Protein backbone atom coordinates (compact mmCIF):
# COMPACT_ATOMS: atom_id res chain seq x y z
CA UNK A 1 0.00 0.00 0.00
CA UNK A 2 1.44 3.46 -0.89
CA UNK A 3 2.47 5.69 2.00
CA UNK A 4 -0.24 8.23 1.12
CA UNK A 5 -2.95 5.53 1.25
CA UNK A 6 -1.70 4.34 4.62
CA UNK A 7 -1.78 7.90 5.86
CA UNK A 8 -5.33 8.52 4.64
CA UNK A 9 -6.56 5.29 6.15
CA UNK A 10 -4.98 6.20 9.45
CA UNK A 11 -6.43 9.70 9.25
CA UNK A 12 -9.95 8.36 8.91
CA UNK A 13 -9.52 6.22 12.02
CA UNK A 14 -7.83 8.76 14.27
CA UNK A 15 -8.98 12.19 13.08
CA UNK A 16 -8.73 14.76 15.90
CA UNK A 17 -11.56 16.71 14.23
CA UNK A 18 -14.39 14.18 14.79
CA UNK A 19 -15.70 16.12 17.78
CA UNK A 20 -16.10 19.19 15.58
CA UNK A 21 -18.36 17.53 13.06
CA UNK A 22 -22.17 17.24 12.93
CA UNK A 23 -22.69 15.32 16.19
CA UNK A 24 -20.99 18.04 18.12
CA UNK A 25 -22.86 20.88 16.40
CA UNK A 26 -26.30 19.20 16.71
CA UNK A 27 -26.22 19.51 20.47
CA UNK A 28 -26.31 23.26 20.15
CA UNK A 29 -29.75 24.91 20.28
CA UNK A 30 -28.48 27.80 18.12
CA UNK A 31 -27.68 26.59 14.61
CA UNK A 32 -25.59 29.67 13.90
CA UNK A 33 -21.81 29.17 14.39
CA UNK A 34 -19.96 31.95 16.07
CA UNK A 35 -17.23 33.47 13.95
CA UNK A 36 -14.55 32.50 16.45
CA UNK A 37 -15.57 28.84 16.27
CA UNK A 38 -15.42 28.88 12.49
CA UNK A 39 -11.98 30.47 12.54
CA UNK A 40 -10.73 27.89 15.02
CA UNK A 41 -12.07 25.06 12.92
CA UNK A 42 -10.46 26.47 9.79
CA UNK A 43 -7.09 26.84 11.53
CA UNK A 44 -7.21 23.29 12.84
CA UNK A 45 -8.15 21.96 9.41
CA UNK A 46 -5.28 23.85 7.79
CA UNK A 47 -2.91 22.60 10.47
CA UNK A 48 -4.07 19.03 9.85
CA UNK A 49 -3.49 19.32 6.11
CA UNK A 50 0.02 20.69 6.66
CA UNK A 51 0.76 17.88 9.12
CA UNK A 52 -0.49 15.28 6.65
CA UNK A 53 1.70 16.67 3.85
CA UNK A 54 4.71 16.67 6.17
CA UNK A 55 4.16 13.02 7.20
CA UNK A 56 3.77 11.95 3.56
CA UNK A 57 7.06 13.60 2.62
CA UNK A 58 8.81 11.96 5.57
CA UNK A 59 7.54 8.55 4.52
CA UNK A 60 8.63 9.13 0.93
CA UNK A 61 12.07 10.17 2.13
CA UNK A 62 12.29 7.03 4.28
CA UNK A 63 11.46 4.93 1.22
CA UNK A 64 14.25 6.63 -0.73
CA UNK A 65 16.72 6.00 2.10
CA UNK A 66 15.66 2.36 2.30
CA UNK A 67 16.16 1.92 -1.45
CA UNK A 68 19.62 3.50 -1.23
CA UNK A 69 20.70 1.23 1.61
CA UNK A 70 19.07 -1.86 0.10
CA UNK A 71 19.50 -1.74 -3.67
CA UNK A 72 17.44 -4.24 -5.65
CA UNK A 73 19.18 -7.58 -6.10
CA UNK A 74 20.20 -8.85 -9.51
CA UNK A 75 17.67 -11.28 -10.91
CA UNK A 76 19.02 -14.82 -10.45
CA UNK A 77 17.02 -15.97 -13.44
CA UNK A 78 19.36 -14.10 -15.74
CA UNK A 79 22.74 -14.50 -13.99
CA UNK A 80 24.54 -12.29 -16.46
CA UNK A 81 28.04 -10.93 -15.95
CA UNK A 82 28.88 -7.26 -15.88
CA UNK A 83 28.92 -6.16 -19.55
CA UNK A 84 31.94 -3.97 -18.76
CA UNK A 85 34.04 -7.02 -17.88
CA UNK A 86 35.99 -8.46 -20.79
CA UNK A 87 35.98 -12.07 -19.60
CA UNK A 88 38.28 -14.60 -21.23
CA UNK A 89 39.12 -18.26 -20.75
CA UNK A 90 42.37 -20.16 -21.25
CA UNK A 91 43.01 -23.90 -21.25
CA UNK A 92 46.24 -24.63 -19.37
CA UNK A 93 48.42 -27.74 -19.37
CA UNK A 94 51.72 -29.07 -18.14
CA UNK A 95 53.76 -31.93 -19.57
CA UNK A 96 56.41 -34.11 -17.93
CA UNK A 97 59.93 -33.53 -19.22
CA UNK A 98 60.64 -35.71 -22.25
CA UNK A 99 56.98 -36.21 -23.24
CA UNK A 100 57.15 -35.46 -26.95
CA UNK A 101 54.04 -35.63 -29.11
CA UNK A 102 55.88 -34.61 -32.24
CA UNK A 103 55.31 -31.61 -34.46
CA UNK A 104 52.15 -29.63 -35.17
CA UNK A 105 50.34 -30.81 -32.06
CA UNK A 106 48.05 -28.36 -30.29
CA UNK A 107 48.44 -27.72 -26.58
CA UNK A 108 47.10 -25.37 -23.95
CA UNK A 109 48.96 -22.51 -22.34
CA UNK A 110 51.80 -23.74 -20.15
CA UNK A 111 50.66 -24.07 -16.52
CA UNK A 112 53.81 -22.42 -15.17
CA UNK A 113 53.27 -19.39 -17.44
CA UNK A 114 49.61 -19.19 -16.41
CA UNK A 115 50.48 -19.23 -12.71
CA UNK A 116 53.20 -16.61 -13.23
CA UNK A 117 50.71 -14.42 -15.06
CA UNK A 118 48.15 -14.65 -12.26
CA UNK A 119 50.80 -13.81 -9.68
CA UNK A 120 51.94 -10.78 -11.67
CA UNK A 121 48.35 -9.51 -11.95
CA UNK A 122 47.65 -9.75 -8.22
CA UNK A 123 47.33 -6.35 -6.58
CA UNK A 124 45.03 -7.00 -3.61
CA UNK A 125 44.44 -10.62 -2.62
CA UNK A 126 45.09 -14.23 -3.59
CA UNK A 127 43.25 -17.16 -2.01
CA UNK A 128 44.57 -20.66 -2.73
CA UNK A 129 43.08 -24.05 -1.92
CA UNK A 130 45.33 -27.06 -2.45
CA UNK A 131 45.62 -30.59 -1.09
CA UNK A 132 49.21 -29.88 -0.04
CA UNK A 133 52.26 -27.71 -0.84
CA UNK A 134 55.57 -29.11 -2.02
CA UNK A 135 57.36 -26.68 -4.34
CA UNK A 136 60.95 -27.79 -3.66
CA UNK A 137 62.52 -31.18 -4.30
CA UNK A 138 64.33 -31.49 -0.97
CA UNK A 139 61.00 -31.61 0.84
CA UNK A 140 60.61 -35.14 -0.52
CA UNK A 141 64.36 -35.93 -0.20
CA UNK A 142 64.94 -35.76 -3.94
CA UNK A 143 67.74 -33.99 -5.78
CA UNK A 144 66.34 -32.74 -9.08
CA UNK A 145 66.91 -29.59 -11.07
CA UNK A 146 63.40 -30.01 -12.48
CA UNK A 147 62.06 -28.27 -9.37
CA UNK A 148 63.32 -24.89 -10.65
CA UNK A 149 59.88 -23.73 -11.74
CA UNK A 150 58.37 -24.79 -8.42
CA UNK A 151 61.00 -22.81 -6.53
CA UNK A 152 60.25 -19.77 -8.66
CA UNK A 153 56.52 -19.99 -7.87
CA UNK A 154 57.33 -20.28 -4.17
CA UNK A 155 59.51 -17.16 -4.32
CA UNK A 156 56.68 -15.28 -6.03
CA UNK A 157 54.29 -16.21 -3.22
CA UNK A 158 56.81 -15.22 -0.58
CA UNK A 159 57.10 -11.77 -2.13
CA UNK A 160 53.37 -11.05 -2.29
CA UNK A 161 52.91 -9.66 1.26
CA UNK A 162 55.73 -7.17 0.64
CA UNK A 163 53.69 -5.93 -2.34
CA UNK A 164 50.72 -5.41 0.01
CA UNK A 165 48.93 -8.39 -1.49
CA UNK A 166 47.00 -10.40 1.09
CA UNK A 167 47.46 -14.17 0.72
CA UNK A 168 45.32 -16.86 2.31
CA UNK A 169 46.01 -20.57 1.94
CA UNK A 170 43.89 -23.56 2.95
CA UNK A 171 45.28 -27.06 2.82
CA UNK A 172 44.37 -30.51 4.08
CA UNK A 173 44.72 -32.69 7.11
CA UNK A 174 45.56 -35.50 6.25
CA UNK A 175 48.26 -34.48 3.76
CA UNK A 176 50.72 -36.08 1.36
CA UNK A 177 53.48 -33.67 2.36
CA UNK A 178 53.87 -33.73 6.17
CA UNK A 179 57.51 -32.62 5.94
CA UNK A 180 56.99 -29.71 3.54
CA UNK A 181 58.65 -26.47 4.60
CA UNK A 182 56.70 -24.29 2.15
CA UNK A 183 53.90 -23.34 4.50
CA UNK A 184 56.27 -22.56 7.34
CA UNK A 185 58.28 -20.22 5.12
CA UNK A 186 55.15 -18.56 3.75
CA UNK A 187 53.73 -18.02 7.23
CA UNK A 188 56.96 -16.28 8.26
CA UNK A 189 56.45 -13.90 5.32
CA UNK A 190 52.95 -12.95 6.38
CA UNK A 191 50.80 -15.46 4.49
CA UNK A 192 47.69 -16.58 6.41
CA UNK A 193 47.50 -20.37 6.52
CA UNK A 194 44.82 -22.71 7.76
CA UNK A 195 44.59 -26.50 7.63
CA UNK A 196 41.17 -28.12 7.38
CA UNK A 197 40.92 -31.41 9.24
CA UNK A 198 38.77 -33.25 6.74
CA UNK A 199 39.91 -36.49 8.34
CA UNK A 200 37.94 -35.52 11.43
CA UNK A 201 35.11 -33.67 9.70
CA UNK A 202 34.22 -36.10 6.91
CA UNK A 203 36.81 -38.91 6.99
CA UNK A 204 38.14 -37.52 3.73
CA UNK A 205 40.65 -34.94 2.51
CA UNK A 206 40.66 -31.48 0.95
CA UNK A 207 41.43 -32.35 -2.68
CA UNK A 208 40.37 -29.04 -4.26
CA UNK A 209 42.93 -27.11 -6.31
CA UNK A 210 41.99 -23.54 -7.17
CA UNK A 211 43.11 -19.91 -7.00
CA UNK A 212 41.08 -16.70 -6.70
CA UNK A 213 42.98 -13.53 -7.63
CA UNK A 214 41.72 -10.02 -6.81
CA UNK A 215 38.15 -11.25 -6.78
CA UNK A 216 38.01 -11.55 -10.57
CA UNK A 217 40.51 -14.11 -11.90
CA UNK A 218 40.12 -17.86 -11.26
CA UNK A 219 42.21 -21.00 -11.75
CA UNK A 220 40.68 -24.49 -11.36
CA UNK A 221 42.50 -27.65 -12.34
CA UNK A 222 44.21 -30.90 -11.47
CA UNK A 223 47.52 -29.41 -10.28
CA UNK A 224 48.47 -29.28 -6.63
CA UNK A 225 50.96 -26.70 -5.38
CA UNK A 226 53.74 -29.14 -6.23
CA UNK A 227 56.87 -28.67 -8.32
CA UNK A 228 56.16 -32.01 -9.99
CA UNK A 229 52.88 -30.58 -11.33
CA UNK A 230 54.97 -28.23 -13.47
CA UNK A 231 57.61 -30.61 -14.86
CA UNK A 232 56.92 -34.24 -13.88
CA UNK A 233 53.15 -34.73 -14.03
CA UNK A 234 50.70 -34.11 -16.87
CA UNK A 235 48.10 -31.63 -15.62
CA UNK A 236 45.11 -29.81 -17.11
CA UNK A 237 43.11 -26.83 -15.88
CA UNK A 238 41.37 -23.62 -16.78
CA UNK A 239 42.00 -19.94 -16.08
CA UNK A 240 39.16 -17.44 -16.35
CA UNK A 241 40.09 -13.76 -16.39
CA UNK A 242 37.90 -10.82 -15.43
CA UNK A 243 34.82 -12.64 -14.22
CA UNK A 244 33.92 -11.37 -10.76
CA UNK A 245 30.66 -13.37 -10.69
CA UNK A 246 32.44 -16.74 -10.90
CA UNK A 247 35.20 -15.53 -8.60
CA UNK A 248 32.65 -14.45 -5.98
CA UNK A 249 30.92 -17.81 -6.28
CA UNK A 250 34.16 -19.76 -5.85
CA UNK A 251 35.00 -17.48 -2.91
CA UNK A 252 32.03 -18.94 -1.03
CA UNK A 253 33.55 -22.40 -1.33
CA UNK A 254 36.93 -21.14 -0.18
CA UNK A 255 35.28 -19.43 2.79
CA UNK A 256 33.56 -22.69 3.77
CA UNK A 257 37.03 -24.25 4.08
CA UNK A 258 38.42 -21.22 5.90
CA UNK A 259 35.80 -21.21 8.66
CA UNK A 260 35.83 -24.99 9.21
CA UNK A 261 39.61 -24.90 9.64
CA UNK A 262 39.16 -23.31 13.05
CA UNK A 263 39.94 -25.43 16.08
CA UNK A 264 37.05 -27.75 16.99
CA UNK A 265 34.95 -26.39 14.11
CA UNK A 266 31.94 -28.35 12.94
CA UNK A 267 30.08 -28.41 9.64
CA UNK A 268 27.02 -26.11 9.72
CA UNK A 269 23.66 -27.70 9.03
CA UNK A 270 22.22 -25.88 7.28
CA UNK A 271 24.87 -23.57 5.92
CA UNK A 272 24.18 -19.86 6.57
CA UNK A 273 22.60 -17.94 3.72
CA UNK A 274 25.94 -16.21 3.00
CA UNK A 275 27.06 -19.48 1.37
CA UNK A 276 24.04 -19.82 -0.91
CA UNK A 277 24.59 -19.42 -4.63
CA UNK A 278 22.38 -18.22 -7.45
CA UNK A 279 24.68 -19.88 -10.00
CA UNK A 280 24.06 -23.59 -10.50
CA UNK A 281 22.90 -26.17 -13.01
CA UNK A 282 19.37 -24.77 -13.04
CA UNK A 283 20.56 -21.15 -13.27
CA UNK A 284 24.00 -21.06 -14.95
CA UNK A 285 25.91 -17.83 -15.37
CA UNK A 286 25.46 -16.34 -18.84
CA UNK A 287 28.67 -14.76 -20.07
CA UNK A 288 30.87 -14.07 -23.05
CA UNK A 289 34.18 -15.91 -22.76
CA UNK A 290 36.83 -14.94 -25.29
CA UNK A 291 34.09 -13.90 -27.71
CA UNK A 292 31.98 -17.06 -27.27
CA UNK A 293 28.56 -17.02 -25.63
CA UNK A 294 28.76 -19.41 -22.69
CA UNK A 295 26.93 -20.79 -19.70
CA UNK A 296 28.94 -21.73 -16.63
CA UNK A 297 28.61 -22.85 -13.05
CA UNK A 298 30.85 -24.25 -10.32
CA UNK A 299 30.18 -27.54 -8.54
CA UNK A 300 31.49 -28.87 -5.26
CA UNK A 301 31.79 -31.93 -3.07
CA UNK A 302 31.27 -33.47 -0.56
CA UNK A 303 27.52 -32.93 -0.15
CA UNK A 304 27.82 -31.83 3.49
CA UNK A 305 29.91 -28.87 2.31
CA UNK A 306 27.25 -27.79 -0.19
CA UNK A 307 24.27 -25.59 0.63
CA UNK A 308 21.08 -26.70 -1.08
CA UNK A 309 21.61 -24.18 -3.88
CA UNK A 310 25.04 -25.56 -4.87
CA UNK A 311 25.12 -28.24 -7.60
CA UNK A 312 26.96 -31.32 -6.36
CA UNK A 313 29.97 -32.47 -8.31
CA UNK A 314 28.60 -35.96 -8.92
CA UNK A 315 25.23 -34.62 -10.07
CA UNK A 316 26.95 -32.46 -12.70
CA UNK A 317 28.92 -35.43 -14.03
CA UNK A 318 25.84 -37.65 -14.21
CA UNK A 319 23.85 -34.89 -15.90
CA UNK A 320 26.54 -34.43 -18.55
CA UNK A 321 26.70 -38.18 -19.19
CA UNK A 322 22.93 -38.64 -19.35
CA UNK A 323 22.49 -35.60 -21.57
CA UNK A 324 25.01 -36.70 -24.20
CA UNK A 325 23.60 -37.86 -27.54
CA UNK A 326 26.76 -38.24 -29.63
CA UNK A 327 29.90 -38.85 -27.58
CA UNK A 328 31.32 -38.91 -24.04
CA UNK A 329 35.08 -38.47 -23.67
CA UNK A 330 36.56 -38.88 -20.20
CA UNK A 331 40.16 -38.41 -19.12
CA UNK A 332 40.74 -39.16 -15.44
CA UNK A 333 43.74 -40.36 -13.50
CA UNK A 334 41.78 -43.04 -11.70
CA UNK A 335 38.43 -44.63 -12.52
CA UNK A 336 37.46 -46.90 -9.66
CA UNK A 337 33.74 -47.71 -9.15
CA UNK A 338 34.14 -48.49 -5.47
CA UNK A 339 35.17 -46.91 -2.18
CA UNK A 340 38.91 -47.00 -1.56
CA UNK A 341 39.74 -45.21 1.66
CA UNK A 342 39.06 -45.76 5.35
CA UNK A 343 38.48 -49.48 4.75
CA UNK A 344 35.09 -49.10 3.07
CA UNK A 345 35.73 -51.13 -0.07
CA UNK A 346 32.13 -51.22 -1.26
CA UNK A 347 31.01 -51.42 -4.87
CA UNK A 348 29.89 -48.06 -6.24
CA UNK A 349 28.71 -48.34 -9.87
CA UNK A 350 26.99 -44.94 -10.12
CA UNK A 351 29.16 -43.39 -12.86
CA UNK A 352 29.94 -46.74 -14.45
CA UNK A 353 26.22 -47.54 -14.87
CA UNK A 354 25.56 -44.10 -16.38
CA UNK A 355 28.29 -44.67 -18.97
CA UNK A 356 26.99 -48.15 -19.81
CA UNK A 357 23.40 -46.94 -20.18
CA UNK A 358 24.52 -44.15 -22.48
CA UNK A 359 26.31 -46.62 -24.73
CA UNK A 360 23.65 -49.35 -24.68
CA UNK A 361 20.39 -47.37 -24.50
CA UNK A 362 21.29 -44.34 -26.61
CA UNK A 363 24.21 -45.67 -28.68
CA UNK A 364 26.48 -42.89 -27.47
CA UNK A 365 30.17 -43.39 -28.18
CA UNK A 366 32.06 -43.63 -24.87
CA UNK A 367 35.84 -43.24 -24.65
CA UNK A 368 37.56 -43.54 -21.28
CA UNK A 369 41.24 -42.61 -20.97
CA UNK A 370 42.70 -43.63 -17.61
CA UNK A 371 46.22 -43.17 -16.34
CA UNK A 372 48.76 -45.75 -15.35
CA UNK A 373 52.17 -45.36 -13.76
CA UNK A 374 54.47 -47.34 -11.57
CA UNK A 375 52.51 -46.38 -8.43
CA UNK A 376 49.00 -46.87 -9.83
CA UNK A 377 46.71 -49.07 -7.75
CA UNK A 378 46.32 -52.42 -9.60
CA UNK A 379 42.85 -52.81 -8.04
CA UNK A 380 41.57 -50.49 -10.78
CA UNK A 381 42.37 -53.04 -13.50
CA UNK A 382 39.35 -55.44 -13.20
CA UNK A 383 36.88 -52.55 -13.38
CA UNK A 384 38.27 -50.90 -16.50
CA UNK A 385 38.66 -54.30 -18.16
CA UNK A 386 35.00 -55.18 -17.51
CA UNK A 387 33.91 -51.85 -18.96
CA UNK A 388 36.04 -52.33 -22.05
CA UNK A 389 34.61 -55.83 -22.52
CA UNK A 390 31.23 -54.32 -23.41
CA UNK A 391 32.65 -52.86 -26.61
CA UNK A 392 30.68 -54.46 -29.45
CA UNK A 393 30.50 -52.35 -32.65
CA UNK A 394 28.38 -54.98 -34.38
CA UNK A 395 25.71 -54.36 -31.74
CA UNK A 396 26.22 -50.60 -31.97
CA UNK A 397 27.73 -50.54 -28.47
CA UNK A 398 30.84 -48.41 -28.48
CA UNK A 399 32.74 -48.32 -25.19
CA UNK A 400 36.48 -48.09 -25.52
CA UNK A 401 39.02 -47.87 -22.70
CA UNK A 402 42.65 -46.93 -23.19
CA UNK A 403 45.54 -46.43 -20.78
CA UNK A 404 47.80 -43.38 -20.91
CA UNK A 405 51.35 -44.23 -19.85
CA UNK A 406 54.20 -41.73 -19.53
CA UNK A 407 57.65 -43.34 -19.81
CA UNK A 408 59.62 -42.96 -16.58
CA UNK A 409 62.98 -42.75 -18.34
CA UNK A 410 65.67 -41.44 -16.01
CA UNK A 411 63.08 -39.81 -13.72
CA UNK A 412 61.97 -42.99 -11.96
CA UNK A 413 63.55 -41.87 -8.67
CA UNK A 414 60.90 -39.15 -8.29
CA UNK A 415 57.83 -40.49 -6.43
CA UNK A 416 54.28 -39.71 -7.54
CA UNK A 417 55.39 -38.53 -10.94
CA UNK A 418 55.18 -39.49 -14.62
CA UNK A 419 51.41 -39.75 -14.55
CA UNK A 420 48.49 -38.22 -16.44
CA UNK A 421 46.72 -36.39 -13.60
CA UNK A 422 43.86 -34.93 -15.74
CA UNK A 423 40.27 -34.96 -14.49
CA UNK A 424 37.87 -33.79 -17.19
CA UNK A 425 34.92 -34.80 -19.34
CA UNK A 426 33.72 -33.46 -22.68
CA UNK A 427 30.56 -34.25 -24.63
CA UNK A 428 29.03 -32.54 -27.65
CA UNK A 429 27.21 -30.29 -25.17
CA UNK A 430 29.31 -29.84 -22.04
CA UNK A 431 32.92 -29.33 -20.93
CA UNK A 432 33.70 -30.32 -17.35
CA UNK A 433 37.07 -29.62 -15.68
CA UNK A 434 37.42 -30.88 -12.13
CA UNK A 435 39.78 -31.73 -9.30
CA UNK A 436 38.49 -35.18 -8.30
CA UNK A 437 39.34 -38.71 -9.30
CA UNK A 438 36.35 -40.88 -10.10
CA UNK A 439 35.81 -43.14 -7.12
CA UNK A 440 33.14 -43.05 -4.43
CA UNK A 441 35.18 -41.28 -1.74
CA UNK A 442 35.90 -38.25 -3.90
CA UNK A 443 32.20 -37.49 -4.13
CA UNK A 444 31.03 -38.52 -0.65
CA UNK A 445 33.73 -37.46 1.83
CA UNK A 446 36.41 -35.49 -0.05
CA UNK A 447 36.43 -31.80 -1.00
CA UNK A 448 36.62 -30.99 -4.69
CA UNK A 449 35.36 -28.43 -7.20
CA UNK A 450 34.74 -28.28 -10.93
CA UNK A 451 33.85 -25.83 -13.67
CA UNK A 452 30.99 -26.88 -15.94
CA UNK A 453 30.79 -25.00 -19.22
CA UNK A 454 28.37 -25.07 -22.15
CA UNK A 455 29.30 -23.22 -25.35
CA UNK A 456 28.56 -23.02 -29.01
CA UNK A 457 30.76 -25.88 -30.18
CA UNK A 458 31.76 -24.16 -33.40
CA UNK A 459 34.92 -22.12 -33.80
CA UNK A 460 37.89 -21.93 -31.47
CA UNK A 461 35.94 -22.23 -28.22
CA UNK A 462 37.25 -23.70 -24.97
CA UNK A 463 34.88 -26.60 -25.56
CA UNK A 464 36.50 -27.34 -28.92
CA UNK A 465 39.99 -26.96 -27.46
CA UNK A 466 39.23 -29.48 -24.73
CA UNK A 467 37.84 -31.93 -27.27
CA UNK A 468 41.01 -31.49 -29.35
CA UNK A 469 43.18 -32.20 -26.30
CA UNK A 470 41.34 -35.44 -25.70
CA UNK A 471 41.66 -36.50 -29.36
CA UNK A 472 45.38 -35.65 -29.26
CA UNK A 473 45.99 -37.78 -26.17
CA UNK A 474 43.73 -40.64 -27.30
CA UNK A 475 45.60 -41.05 -30.59
CA UNK A 476 49.08 -40.34 -29.18
CA UNK A 477 51.91 -42.90 -28.82
CA UNK A 478 51.32 -42.81 -25.05
CA UNK A 479 47.77 -44.17 -25.28
CA UNK A 480 47.45 -47.96 -25.30
CA UNK A 481 44.57 -50.42 -25.64
CA UNK A 482 44.16 -52.72 -22.66
CA UNK A 483 45.39 -55.68 -24.70
CA UNK A 484 48.85 -54.09 -24.89
CA UNK A 485 49.23 -53.23 -21.22
CA UNK A 486 51.08 -56.42 -20.29
CA UNK A 487 54.21 -55.37 -22.17
CA UNK A 488 54.32 -51.79 -20.81
CA UNK A 489 56.71 -51.89 -17.86
CA UNK A 490 56.03 -48.33 -16.73
CA UNK A 491 52.44 -49.28 -15.92
CA UNK A 492 51.49 -51.15 -12.74
CA UNK A 493 48.71 -52.91 -14.66
CA UNK A 494 51.33 -54.95 -16.51
CA UNK A 495 51.56 -57.35 -13.57
CA UNK A 496 47.75 -57.66 -13.36
CA UNK A 497 46.99 -58.16 -17.04
CA UNK A 498 46.51 -61.78 -18.16
UniProtKB/TrEMBL annotation:
Family matches, as PROSITE patterns: PLD
Signal peptide stretch: none
Domain of life: Eukaryota
Segments forming a coiled coil: none
Chain segments annotated as transmembrane: 35-56
Molecular function, one GO term: catalytic activity
InterPro entries, per database record: Diverse_PLD-related (IPR050874), PLDc_3 (IPR032803), PLipase_D/transphosphatidylase (IPR001736)
Keywords from the named record: Membrane, Transmembrane, Transmembrane helix
Chain ranges of the PLD phosphodiesterase domain: 202-229, 416-442
Similarity field: Belongs to the phospholipase D family.
Name listed for the protein in its UniProt record: Phospholipase D4
Organism encoding this protein: Carassius auratus (Goldfish)
Gene it is expressed from: pld4
Amino acid sequence: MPASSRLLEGHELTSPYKSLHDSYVSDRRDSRCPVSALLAAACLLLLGILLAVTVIEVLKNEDRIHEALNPPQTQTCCNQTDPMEQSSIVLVESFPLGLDYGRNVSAGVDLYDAWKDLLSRASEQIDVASFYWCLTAEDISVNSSSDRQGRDILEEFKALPSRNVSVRVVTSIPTLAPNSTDLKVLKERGVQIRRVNFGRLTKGILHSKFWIVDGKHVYIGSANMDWRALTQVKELGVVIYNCSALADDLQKIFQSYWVTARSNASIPDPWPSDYDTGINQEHPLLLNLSGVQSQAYITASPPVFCPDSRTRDLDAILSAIRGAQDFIHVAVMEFYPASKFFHHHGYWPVIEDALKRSAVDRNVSVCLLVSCGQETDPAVWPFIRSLDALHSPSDNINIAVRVFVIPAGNQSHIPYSRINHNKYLVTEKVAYVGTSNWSADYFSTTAGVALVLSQNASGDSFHQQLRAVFDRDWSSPFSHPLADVQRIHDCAFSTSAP
